[in-house]
């Protein structure tokens, strides 16, 4: 029994695991006003994993990018005079200007990663970019495999 106000670490870990595994595909809503006969794969709904498939194609990537942008535009009403990026017609160039993103990481592992990157003579941004490129261009694993891999992050080490 824990004293009042003292968080239960195992309960926190279970809650983290549930949130991570229950996450739905971001921007999964079906966009309105898209001609189904002209839609790219992934433009109307999230892509489905199939066995024996290869890496995500450029057409699939653009379709998902278009769906996500349409959903962003639908969720945020346009302010008077504000400039907004429209729905893309092509993928950004590989050497396009980098965009800032916000992510949440466990602070212990973030600190360890910064220390390792420093030891390796680089920075964590470069390491995360390397990992992102490898992940983005690799072959997708099954949702079950990914679920097991993510659950293993929080498994107790003996």
What would you note in describing this structure?
The two termini are about 25 Å apart. With about 160 residues, the protein is mostly helical. The protein has helices at about 10-20, 60-75, 105-120, 125-135, 145-150.
SSE run = HHHHH
Oligomer: single chain
Number of helices: 5
* Class from helix and strand fractions: mainly alpha
Q: What Rg do the Cα atoms give? A: 20 Å
Total strand count, please?
A: 0
Strand content: under 5%
Strand count, sense and barrel status of the largest sheet are:
none
**Percentage of helical residues?**
40-55%
Mean pLDDT: 86
State the low-pLDDT regions, or none. Answer: none
Shape: globular
Distance between the termini: 23 Å
Top keywords for this entry?
mainly alpha, 44% helix, 0% strand
Task: Give a nutshell description of this structure.
The chain is an all-alpha fold and 158 residues long. 44% of the residues lie in helices and 0% in strands.
């Amino acid at each position: 029994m824990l004293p009042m106000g003292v968080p239960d670490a195992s309960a926190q870990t279970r809650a983290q695991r549930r949130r991570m595994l229950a996450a739905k595909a971001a921007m999964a809503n079906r966009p309105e006003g898209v001609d189904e006969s002209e839609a790219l794969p992934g433009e109307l709904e999230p892509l489905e994993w199939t066995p024996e498939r290869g890496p995500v194609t450029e057409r699939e990537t653009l379709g998902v990018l278009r769906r996500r942008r349409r959903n962003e535009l639908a969720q945020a009403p346009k302010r008077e005079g504000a400039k907004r990026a429209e729905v893309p017609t092509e993928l950004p160039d590989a050497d396009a200007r980098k965009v800032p993103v916000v992510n949440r990481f466990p602070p212990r592992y973030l600190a360890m990663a910064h220390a390792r990157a420093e030891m390796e003579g680089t920075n964590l941004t470069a390491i995360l970019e390397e990992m992102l490129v490898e992940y983005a261009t690799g072959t997708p694993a099954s949702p079950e495999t990914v679920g097991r891999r993510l659950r293993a992050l929080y498994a107790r080490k003996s």
